[in-house]
């Protein structure tokens, strides 16, 4: 586990995880969503902005889950197969990178 420092909505957080770049990416997504929510409203309360941003993110996730669940058998199986292959390739690359680095 590594520590990474991120800024979200003008607040600094020190987070721990296995992939600092991924954590930074997620933090940037949350920051962007919070700023978009704040720009559309009059609230300056960061807790309210965070809750509204979380609701927006949850709505996006729910819509993606519904789209995924709506996929028919062959399309869903094709997606699973492709995902499995890509995961295997990624694992192989990461394993090789660990050996080299």
Automatic annotation (TrEMBL):
Example GO BP: septin ring assembly
SUPFAM superfamilies: Cell division protein ZapA-like
Location within or outside the cell: Cytoplasm
Keyword Membrane part of the UniProt annotation: no
Keyword Cytoplasm (UniProt): yes
Keyword terms, alphabetized: Cell cycle, Cell division, Cytoplasm, Septation
Cellular component, GO annotation: cell division site; cell septum; cytosol
Positions of transmembrane segments: none
Record function comment: Activator of cell division through the inhibition of FtsZ GTPase activity, therefore promoting FtsZ assembly into bundles of protofilaments necessary for the formation of the division Z ring. It is recruited early at mid-cell but it is not essential for cell division.
Subunit field text: Homodimer. Interacts with FtsZ.
Cited PANTHER family: CELL DIVISION PROTEIN ZAPA
Annotated protein name in UniProt: Cell division protein ZapA
Organism for this UniProt entry: Alloacidobacterium dinghuense
